[in-house]
Design brief:
Layout lengths: L2 E2 L7 E6 L3 H13 L2 E6 L2 H11 L3 E7 L7 H11 L4 E6 L5 H7 L4 E4 L4 H12 L1
Parallel strand pairs: 2-3, 2-4, 4-5, 5-6
Antiparallel strand pairs: 1-3
Helix pairs in contact: 2-3
Length: 129
């Protein structure tokens, strides 16, 4: 687990969960450039554990829907039990389908991978408003 950030004008803390190391690294870099501290989780179980440990400071969870240990639905459910009002953004390389739309009922936003810095910024801003 790593908490990354920059010293000037921190906008908040984001828990980024994705099982692809490259997505986690590039996503964290993009989020830091947008002014966020980042907590990275390499799978669903770790995301739940880290959220439990840092629930007071996490503003948004960005969660990959498809991960090998726990899927997005299970992780969303567990995190919402810990803190029902937390903002969760789903992220997927697949398009939105009926399962995704079902999970989205408990989430604040969706971003399709691969995403640009502009798309990430706009989606986060919409979730935070």
């Amino acid at each position: 687990m790593a908490v990354h950030g920059q010293d000037s004008e921190i906008r908040g803390t984001i828990l980024l969960a994705d099982d692809e190391e490259m997505v986690l690294e590039v996503g964290a870099q993009m989020l830091k450039r947008l002014g966020f501290n980042v907590i990275g989780a390499e799978n669903g179980s770790k995301a739940i554990e880290l959220f439990q440990d840092h629930k007071e400071i996490v503003d948004i969870v960005i969660l990959d829907i498809v991960m090998p240990d726990l899927g997005g639905a299970e992780v969303v459910e567990a995190i919402k039990k810990i803190k029902p009002d937390v903002n969760i953004m789903l992220s997927s390389g697949y398009g939105r389908d009926s399962k995704t739309n079902e999970i989205m009922q408990n989430c604040s936003g969706f971003i399709q991978k691969p995403f640009s810095m502009k798309e990430l910024s706009e989606t986060i801003n919409a979730v935070m408003d």
